[in-house]
Structure formats: structure tokens, C-alpha cells
Amino acid sequence: MPDAVPAWLSDAHARCLLPPPAEPSAAGGAIDALVEGPVGDRCYEAHPTVREDGTVVWWLIDDTDHRLAREALRIERERTAFLAQASNLLLSSLNLERCMDVTAQMAAEHLADAALVISPAHGHDLPIVSCLRGGTPVSSRVTALAEDVPGLAEALQGFPPVPSRWIDPANAPPWLIPDGFGVVGSIVITPLPGHGIPAGALVLLRRAGGDGFSEEEEVFARLFAARAGAAMSAARLYAEQASISETLMRDLLPPFLHQVSGVEYAGGYRASRDHERIGGDFYDVHPAAVEGDASLVVLGDVCGKGLEAAVMTGKIRNTLHALLPMADDHQRMLNLLNTALLSTHNARFATMVLASAVREGSAVKLRLTSAGHPAPLIVRGNGTVEESATQGTLVGALPTVTAETAEVTLAPGETCVLYTDGITEARGGPLGDAMFGETRLQRVLAECAGMSAEVVVERVQMLASEWVGTGAHDDMAVVVITAPKTNHLSAVDGHTRGRFTA
After folding, report:
1. Are 227 and 190 in contact (CB under 8 A)?
2. What single-letter DSSP state applies at residue 403?
């Protein structure tokens, strides 16, 4: 038998001829008669039949096709699981550097001995992330030409990959081989498809002396590259859009307010949605071009909310900025702004209030003009809250705007509060459906008598936010104009109240 059949079948035959043990062993009893093994390039199952005279007849079944099918199914399941894992990791982040690192590391662990992810050239540099199997990704920039590597320039342009057998590893430039890799035996270069434009190229390396890339492995590498390229392209697109949005939003965000020409200003804004930074409410303070002239304060509320309303606020703010040379004539500014809004193709209107403020001695002189907006509130030093006598029609809806201007004087420590209806109409409270209301706002402001502008803003914002809680609300904006207190000098004896100086 050893000379006539393969060793695995000869050994199985010898075991079958042994007498059965008296007692089955604790390990499981008699040896299973079915055995498997190769015969040439085929695989067989061998089944014994023991005859009455003690001889053994073996009948063999060719199991090669079944074995190949099972192996192919196992490989396909592993590859499917790998692609699913890759998709989860790649899509879990919109950071381009993170996507490149994950791509290089997963490709090195599962597809090759080393992997490189190469982005399209920035000037004369190629951004590269390389990774050895079992290592960590390394980012670098190489001053080189993609044309130095056959197929790389085409892959970076999104052309189909060339077969690995067409690429001579001996011609690979040194910058393509990671440190400590050794001699390259096989190279695969495949594009990383993106959304509209290629996201880069994936380079797979295997060491000399090992197996080269099979045709099936190259196809699978392209499947992986398609997922990686889509994730990288999405991350790059997100980064570009975020940069554009940040640039555009920078001019739409409310400005930081401070003291201008002896008048104290403070402002606060909260968008209708917590994940947004801009909306339909806006405010600005435009310092006077000439020292001693009045500064212009604008607070407005555009119909609607979100990005569309924010774009409209940007148009209004730019228009008002262009009209600053006539800031001393509120009625004319409102009429010109109204004409500009009516001439645009939009169905949005706005309410706003204009305030001209100038320091005169220790007091602050105000001229207040409301265009369909809640009238500003004046907080006196004794805690009395007054509503300014100004009213008017909204802007961008009617052919003309009519408005009345009120003149107010703020003594040191007194305050004028401009606000949008998002504060007074905020619903919340114990039952969740009561409006904050003007009465409650005036009561809050009465408690803020003598406080600085910044403290008043913080107080109003805090109480309004507590009132709405987690409920829905409109955009909320508030601007406070305060006549600064004069400097307080302590009395010499330390007991009297001392005095204020201009």
C-alpha cells in the first residue's frame, strides 16, 4: 500500500486494519474512517468499507470542485467583511487626512506588504501617506513627478489601471518605497475614483520573493479603492464647503461690540436652531467717521429663519453700510433701503430700529427710529423702564416707509435696550406655552438698573434661555447702549459715599 497509494491513504488503511480497542478512549473512541487528501492536483474524499474477511475496500470521490468552491466562498466572505469594515471606518469621518490614513493602513494590512495613498499634486509636491504592514501611517510631501512611475500619472487623472505585470519593480523611484521595506517584487497602481474628479491613487507593494498580485487581487484592490476614493472625495468636498461657508459666514456673524467714542455697547445673539450660528436677526454698530459725530446702531429682524434669512440680512447690512454717509437722516436711509429691497426678487421683508448715539458731556444723546420693530426700552437709574416713543412701518413690503424718530438722553449709568421679538415671543415657562412677554422683559431690565451693558445682555439672554428651555424658539438678538458711569472716587474717611467725576 505505501508504494501504491498516497501516504495519507496508506496511513488511513493501516489504521482501519488495527483491531478495535476493548474500551473507547475518553478522547472520543474510534478514529473516523473518512479521510481526505490530494492525488496529483486533485482532492479526494476516501470512504472505507470493511468486508467480512477483514479486507478493506476504498472508494474515492473527487472533491476538488467542491473544495475550490468552498475556498472561493470563504475568500469572498472575508473580502465582503473587509469591504464592509473599510466602508464603516472610511465613512465614519469627514476628515481627509483621517481617510487617507485609514486607506493606507487597511490596504497594507489586508492587500499588500505596504501601501501608499497619493493625492493629486499641489504645485510641485505630491502629498503621500505610506504605511507598512503592522505599522502606522506616515504623511509626507515629495517633490517628484508622477510620470516617473508607470501608470501613476494616469491613475491620478482617473484613467483605468494598468496590469501589475506591465510595471517593472526595478524602475520604482526611491521615494515610492517606504523606509525599511526592502526590495520590491510586485506593484499595483489603481485610481481612487472621486465625485467628478479623481481623489488620488492607491499604490500597493509586495516584497521580492513572495507571491505577486493575481488578477483577482487586482480586481479586489479596485473595489477597495472605489470605496476609499468616494470617502476621500466626500471628505475633500466637505472641507472645501466648510472653508467656503466659514469665509461667507464670517461677514454674517454678529460683530463684537465694545465702547465707541465714550458710549458703551454690548450685543448678544442666539439662532433659532442650536446647531446654527446665523439667522434672520442682526445688529451692527457703525462708528462715526468724524470724532464727535453720532455712531449708528442697527438692529433688525428679517422675515424667516435659517440660511436664507441670513443671506437676506447680509444684503441689508451691506446696503446700510453703503448708506452710512447719510446716517444722520434715518428716514432717508429707510426709504433707500426699502427701494433696494423692493427691487430684488425676494418675498422677504424686515423690521428694524436705528439708533444714533453721541456722547455729550457725561450723558449720551440718542435718536431712535423704529421701522415696524418693537420700540427700544430705556432703563433709568432709579429702575424705571420707559418705552421710547418711536414707531413705523416695516421695510421691503410697502412702496414707502413712514417712521417717527424719538430723542432720548441717557444719564450716566442709564441704558437703552434694543431687542427682537424672538425674546418677548419666546414660549416656555412652567407649562411650556407662555410667552416671555414685554412685561417680564421690563421687570428683568428694572433689576438691571445701573449695570454695565455687557451684564444687561448676559442677564436678558440667560433668563430668556431659561424660559424656553429645550423648546423651539425664534432668533433672539439684543443690543444694549449705556452711558458709562463717571469714575467713582472713594471718600477720604472711607465712610461717606464719595463722589463721581466726569
Report:
1. no
2. B
Give me 15's grid cell: 489504521
Task: Report the C-alpha gap between 259 and 414 in whole angstroms.
Answer: 15
pLDDT at position 272 is 76
> d(Cα 181, Cα 288) in Å, to the nearest integer?
68
**CA-CA distance, 364 to 178, in Å (whole number)?**
71
Distance (Å, rounded) from C-alpha 180 to C-alpha 157?
Answer: 30
**Strand-strand pairing, 114-118 and 200-207:** antiparallel
Tell me which H or E stretch contains 202. strand 200-207
**C-alpha cell at position 418:** 434694543
Query: If you ran DSSP here, which 8-state letter would residue 371 be given?
Result: E
Q: Tell me, yes or no, if the pTM score tops 0.70.
A: no
Match 446702531 to its residue by C-alpha cell.
297
What is the pairing mode between strands 487-489 and 350-360?
unpaired
> Taking the CA of residue 221 as centre, how many other CA atoms within 13 Å lie in the half-sphere pointing to its CB?
31
What is the rounded radius of gyration, in angstroms, for the C-alpha atoms of the chain?
A: 40
Residues 474 and 301: beta-carbon distance below 8 Å: no
Letter for the amino acid at 269?
Y
pLDDT of residue 162: 85
Query: How far is CA 158 from each of CA 103, 162, 196, 455, rounded to the nearest angstrom?
Result: 17, 12, 10, 59
Report residues of the chain scoring pLDDT below 50.
Answer: 24-31, 488-491, 494-502
Question: Nearest CA to 211 among 113, 104, 318, 308?
Answer: 113
Judged by DSSP in three states, 358 sits in strand
Which residues have C-beta within 8 Å of that of residue 95, sequence separation ≥ 6?
235, 239
259, three cell numbers = 465702547
H helix or E strand, kind and range, residue 405: strand 405-410
Q: Which burial class, exposed, middle or buried, applies to 470 when counting CB atoms under 10 A from its CB (0-12, 13-18, 19+)?
A: exposed
Q: Are 445 and 370 in contact (CB under 8 A)?
A: no
